[in-house]
Backbone:
């Protein structure tokens, strides 16, 4: 087996062997039945088998899309907790399952190794006088290697290199900002509320008590992804992340932090408000040629069984709003500036884009019923926590790679990323269960 007998802490997924593995995960929860019509529920899943590689780009475009898939594009989503990133992730993974591109995420722990492979792939294509055959889809979400420090500058240098070579390979970076009170409430309900009963000393006695310990939650996390861990688990450590934004305390530090945040966000191709989520996805497709954008609207469950609503945790919404305005002034500056800039951009895109947005929104509504028909009690992609620097390799003959002449690059990406999915492998290879069954691309039940 390519990953070794012990799997090095990677769990007992569908290609584990022995009675212990079968007992830990019953076959009925992980397989799929050939011929089940639900496997073809989505409009692009017209058969049960995985599509052949490479893809051909001669299909007609739906009415809401304006850009044909490009031979080369780099698409990055900066997924901050609670900004819709899990829906984007599943969309990118579905593009990978269909053979359109390669997903990398949701950490960039081995980025320097991966980037060397990426440069090697690009340079080899350029040496042949070709445009790289590569749609590279990155989810920059969380981890010790911060996107702002090294990953984004590296990608920008690569995009500039390709531009100088007159190669059509755009770098499209996107993220979303959320109304600050709504953001605090969503984060609290999702990850913090259930913890307060067990440890009110650390997490506070209620929503506002916790929020006042976590100033500028959204903007700090935008710049430093690991700050989210402090907000969720180690509230007493939040101050170090907050001070790092501006290099200290006080008004001067706040101003320095705001300038730093703007310098970061101004580099993005798209910074949209959450209210304009669909518009931002359609625009990203226009700019990158991302083929499949009929995503599933994910609603992550609140942790610890917490079932409270925003009204439950904040009965006096105006009081909460006033407190958050004092606690998170930079969050409000960020939201006000970039949501307004995106509104102005939408106006500049004109009536044709607005018309396509409406068509796209209707198509999204229609496809949700199809997504719901898909079997949900399956662990389709195994999640590997960022806990070890021991990197395993995969046998090239088992790899299904959606990158032209990029097997080594796919091997490195698959070995390093946090999601291991069945469509990474050739059908009927020694590592796969039957891949003749259609599967949705979601890493979680």
Residues:
């Amino acid at each position: 087996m390519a990953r070794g007998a012990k799997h090095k802490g990677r769990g007992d997924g569908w290609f584990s062997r022995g009675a212990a593995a079968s007992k830990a995960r019953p076959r009925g929860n992980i397989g799929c039945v050939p011929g089940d019509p639900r496997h073809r529920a989505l409009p692009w899943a017209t058969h049960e088998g995985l599509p052949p590689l490479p893809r051909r780009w001669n299909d007609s475009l739906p009415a809401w899309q304006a850009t044909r898939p490009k031979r080369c594009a780099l698409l990055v989503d900066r997924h901050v907790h609670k900004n819709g990133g899990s829906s984007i992730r599943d969309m990118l993974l579905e593009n990978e399952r269909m053979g359109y591109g390669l997903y990398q995420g949701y950490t960039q722990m081995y980025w320097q190794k991966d980037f060397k492979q990426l440069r090697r792939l690009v340079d080899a294509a350029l040496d042949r006088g070709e445009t790289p055959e590569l749609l590279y889809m990155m989810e920059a979400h969380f981890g010790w290697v911060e996107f702002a420090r090294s990953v984004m500058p590296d990608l920008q240098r690569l995009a500039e290199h390709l531009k100088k070579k007159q190669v059509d390979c755009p770098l499209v970076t996107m993220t979303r900002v959320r109304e600050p009170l709504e953001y605090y409430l969503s984060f609290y309900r999702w990850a913090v509320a259930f913890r307060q009963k067990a440890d009110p000393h650390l997490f506070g006695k209620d929503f506002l008590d916790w929020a006042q310990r976590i100033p500028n939650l959204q903007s700090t996390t935008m710049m430093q992804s690991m700050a989210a861990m402090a907000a969720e688990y180690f509230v007493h450590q939040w101050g170090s992340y907050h001070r790092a934004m501006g290099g200290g305390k006080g008004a001067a530090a706040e101003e320095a932090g705001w300038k730093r945040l703007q310098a970061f966000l101004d580099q993005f191709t798209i910074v949209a408000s959450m209210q304009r989520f669909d518009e931002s996805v359609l625009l990203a497709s226009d700019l990158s040629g991302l083929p499949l954008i009929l995503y599933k609207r994910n609603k992550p469950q609140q942790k610890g069984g917490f079932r409270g609503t925003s009204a439950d945790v904040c009965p006096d919404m105006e009081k909460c709003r006033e407190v958050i305005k004092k606690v998170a002034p930079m969050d409000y500056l960020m939201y006000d500036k970039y949501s307004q800039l995106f509104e102005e951009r939408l106006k500049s895109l004109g009536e044709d884009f607005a018309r396509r947005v409406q068509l796209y929104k209707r198509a999204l509504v229609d496809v949700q019923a199809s997504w719901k028909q898909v079997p949900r009690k399956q662990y389709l992609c195994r999640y590997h926590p960022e806990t070890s620097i021991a990197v395993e390799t995969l046998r090239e003959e088992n790899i299904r790679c959606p990158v032209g002449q990029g097997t080594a690059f796919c091997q490195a990406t698959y070995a390093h990323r946090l999601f291991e999915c069945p469509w990474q492998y050739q059908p009927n290879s020694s590592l796969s269960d039957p891949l003749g069954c259609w599967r949705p691309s979601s890493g979680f039940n």
